[in-house]
């Protein structure tokens, strides 16, 4: 990717610094310098107009300003629709606009990724993990920086997985397995064999670890994302399954066949707006279609494909159950069984959530599939 630079005028001198964005946002066309004298109403107005604010004041004051701008964004009434699909797309537009406005508050970074602002945290380790050292000054949104710091804390503390009686440590940009119901499904479903298995789109490696803990002798875990591949290898080694699970880079399937092929694809067929969102949003349902189209060729005779999938897309009007069954049939597969579980995460009961109606009806399922 071509390097981009943020350009602004400060003390009547044109200055520039390398531009970075986790979501691949374009460089703001206009950047002005701001400090602790900036009022929230003015910051909100400028950001809405597309003017970014390069912060030179106190770091903690920048955080407070961002919260104040967010409150002004959220104060605007949401557009409503009785059509679930339209309501979802309106929600995504609102969230996208919110992220765009909040992304206009910029923070300077020194070449070593230290933050040259008063009361700034010592975040070099977190920012290095997330962005890598470029060896030159740069500019990023406060939103990006806080995201990296938060991800570092997730990575450091880890997420306790009851099925493993251990913690899994997600890396920056790798989806955290905080929704335990899909892990529980893989823990409880009857194994067709303990000889070998494939885990497609492994992420943190959590499902590969569960299969290994259940006694599957060899597991091949695949992913395309370099961060996920390294994260999975680190987690599996830490958990003691490094020799039992082989993590390989692949577009869906590794070579060969196995008696069990497991996949937990992104559940919502919609456009992702940042790398981390590819764990939730599957543009045009491409990964789901790819898995169902190709898995039969990678199954041993009598083997099973386990598809872990929420039906939230159905409740959002983005996919029908008959369309899912058509995809299964088109892949030369038949349904042996379906194991269902209701999610228990906090948003299920959050009536203020824009997607509450769909979340309240959501079911997560493990579909046991075989070749016809």
UniProtKB/TrEMBL annotation:
Q: Name one GO molecular function term.
A: nucleic acid binding
Which Pfam families does this UniProt record tie to the protein?
A: MTS
Q: Which Gene3D superfamilies match?
A: Vaccinia Virus protein VP39
Domain Methyltransferase small residues, every copy: 192-309
UniProt-listed InterPro entries: DNA_methylase_N6_adenine_CS (IPR002052), N5-glutamine_MTase (IPR050320), SAM-dependent_MTases_sf (IPR029063), Small_mtfrase_dom (IPR007848)
Which biological processes are named by the entry's GO terms? methylation
Top-level taxon: Bacteria
Task: Please report the name of this protein according to its UniProt entry.
Answer: Methyltransferase small domain-containing protein
The scientific name of the source species is Rhodococcus erythropolis (strain PR4 / NBRC 100887)
